[in-house]
Design brief:
By secondary structure, the protein is an alpha/beta fold. The strands form three sheets. Strands 1-2-13-12-7-6-3-4-5 form a nine-stranded mixed beta sheet, sandwiched between helices. A four-stranded parallel beta sheet has the order 9-10-8-11, sandwiched between helices. The chain has a two-stranded antiparallel ribbon with strand order 14-15. It is built from 23 helices and 15 strands. The chain binds 1,6-di-O-phosphono-beta-D-fructofuranose.
């Protein structure tokens, strides 16, 4: 019986590339400080909440000839939130840097996400354990979770666990919510003279944790390439059978970076962009009309097939739903402790909700099919987010487009067939073998996280920039977490959180879609990217996403 696939065996041998500023070794680094920073919004409140960690400078590293080893250190690491390809390499990079700086140092992994540091649930990494997970996908090395770290009791428990293990640094690998945890923990540790640093690493397939300092979160590259492969296959199937419309919902939570990137890689017939829907204040009816119009126009030229990409978070961006969901969130936060509501049957729950919403929101809620109502009432995640992965927007749209086409048929405006298949691609891409890009980027992020600790920093996000250049030219450094924060309403209360980066409608990536979408709607300009390649020519194995390529090219032109 085989224990490992041939690809597993080969990937374990891959040696990830480091930027040349780090490749000289962890003991040969110098840090360069930039200017002080400000948060993106709500400065007064953020400054007050993060009195000890606010406003620190951006930093970068360079190699020096002066060698400076580290004292023995114990570090803890947490994988937090949804899986993203490359997480294991962040841990491998961190481990290698730590051991290079002092072989006596230890790395602990907290199990099951942030709850591990509170419960004292951990393992100590050995070289064998690390080696078995190099360049592999998934978070199974220590598991992940979505616990929100915010209470005094949680922080006290985390402090005790760290003190018992002699831990003086914690690395949190996560997205916007998890790095909000990192910022809160960093601030609390400084305020309480704990002597424990906290560094974050930018993870999420959603690609929404980005700004001038963080070009992309890790996992986006591999996940979008995986979805693009699957969608390329479906495009070819649709173009072969010529009998189905495929409505494909794509993960990405709020922002449509995933959908946009995959659209550029495959050129499907319809791509909905949540940010555009919001900007143009499109109603659900207008979205349905737009889709039905393309279906009808294609049918008129004999094409009763096509592919539509639907972003996971669409519903929260349709203005009438956005308002209703915001009020629904507040209502549910209150009803959370109401036993009459909790014990009520489904119909009574719908009635209670209707009674609590204003008349406009109640009308929107009532207009929805039962399935969507049920999905909207599901528990929020621990950070207060609607669990959009469970809302079947693709089915809702198929139902509504089909109804609209029936009306059009009666009016003589549609004379074709509409037979639809629905898909949801999300989990398929989150644990894929990291692409070479993600393998290198993640290893560098982890290695760099230890460099930030070595220089005594806390409340920073590990940052590796210039990512569309070869890895040797990447720029390693750190960015203060507070720089990305603002106040947002969660579970009915305003809280400090890292601001999500949405698709920029005047940015270079959306522009490509905008300029081409009519052509892609009618002519079949499908592209078939195929599977991620790990071995072979650089032109196939080391390509970045279109998003990164276009955004960095635009930055260069602007300079
Ligand atoms: P993160 O923001 O934690 O990286 O999560 C990304 C994500 O994959 C979203 O795209 C998706 O909406 C969500 O996680 C699904 O969550 P879960 O894994 O809990 O079902």
């Amino acid at each position: 019986m085989k224990e490992l696939s041939s690809l597993q065996i080969e990937r374990l041998k891959y040696q990830p590339k480091l930027p040349s500023s780090l490749a000289g070794g962890i003991n040969n680094l110098a840090m360069i400080e930039g200017s002080k920073t400000e948060c993106v919004k709500d400065a007064e409140q953020i400054k007050e909440l993060f009195a000890n960690t606010y406003g620190k400078p951006v930093v970068t590293f360079k190699t020096t000839s002066t060698k400076e080893a580290c004292e023995k250190r114990n570090i803890g690491v947490i994988l937090s939130g949804g899986q993203a390809p490359g997480g294991h390499n962040v841990i491998a990079g961190l481990y290698d840097a730590l051991k290079q700086s002092n072989p006596e140092s230890k790395l602990y992994g907290f199990l099951g996400g942030p709850s591990g540091i509170i419960e004292g649930d951990y393992i100590e990494f050995t070289p064998e354990k690390i080696d078995a997970y190099r360049n592999t996908g998934g978070f199974d090395i220590i598991g992940s979770g979505r616990t929100k770290l915010e209470t005094e009791e949680q922080f006290q428990k985390a402090l005790k666990v760290c003190k018992d293990l002699g831990i003086t640094g914690v690395v949190i690998i996560g997205g916007d919510d998890s790095n909000t945890n990192a910022a809160m923990l960093a601030e609390w540790f400084v305020k309480n003279n704990a002597g424990i640093q906290v560094i974050g690493c930018p993870k999420t397939i959603d690609g929404d944790l980005k700004n001038d300092q963080i070009e992309i979160s890790f996992g986006f590259d591999t996940a979008t390439k995986t979805y693009a492969e699957l969608i390329g296959n479906i495009l070819r199937d649709a173009n072969s059978a010529k009998k189905y419309w495929h409505f494909i919902k794509l993960m990405g939570r709020s922002a449509t970076h995933v959908g946009l990137e995959v659209a550029l890689q495959t050129q499907p017939n319809i791509t909905l962009i949540s940010e555009e829907v919001e900007e143009k204040k499109m109603s659900l009816k207008q979205i349905v009309d737009y889709m039905a119009d393309i279906v009808a126009r294609r049918a008129a030229i004999g094409k009763n097939f096509g592919i539509a990409l639907i972003p996971e978070g669409l519903i929260e961006f349709i203005p009438e739903f956005k308002a209703m969901i915001a009020n629904l969130n507040d209502t549910l936060a209150v009803l959370e402790n109401d036993s009459a509501y909790k014990n009520a049957d489904e119909n009574t729950k719908f009635e209670i909700i209707k009674g609590k919403l204003n008349s406009e929101d109640a009308a929107v809620f009532t207009s929805l099919p039962v399935m969507i109502k049920q999905q909207l009432l599901m528990d929020r995640d621990p950070h207060g987010n609607v669990q959009v992965s469970k809302i079947e927007t693709e089915k809702l749209l198929i139902e509504m487009v089909s109804a609209r086409l029936s009306e059009m048929k009666k009016a003589g405006e549609f004379n074709g067939k509409f037979s639809a298949q629905c898909h949801f691609f999300g989990y398929e891409g989150r644990c894929a073998f990291p692409s070479n890009f993600d393998a290198d980027y993640c290893y560098s992020l982890g290695y760099n996280a230890f460099a930030l600790m070595k220089f005594g920093l806390t409340g920073y996000l590990s940052s590796v920039k210039n990512l569309s250049a070869p890895a040797s030219e990447w720029v390693a450094g750190g960015v203060p977490l507070t720089m990305m924060m603002n106040m947002e309403k969660r579970h009915g209360q305003f809280k400090p959180v890292i601001k999500k980066a949405l698709v920029e409608l005047n940015g270079p990536v959306f522009k490509v879609l905008e300029e081409n979408r009519e052509k892609w709607a009618m002519e079949d300009k499908y592209i078939f990217p195929g599977s991620i390649q790990y071995f072979g020519p650089s032109s196939v194995c080391d390509i970045t996403t279109e998003t990164l390529r276009l955004e960095n090219a635009a930055k260069l032109t602007a300079v």
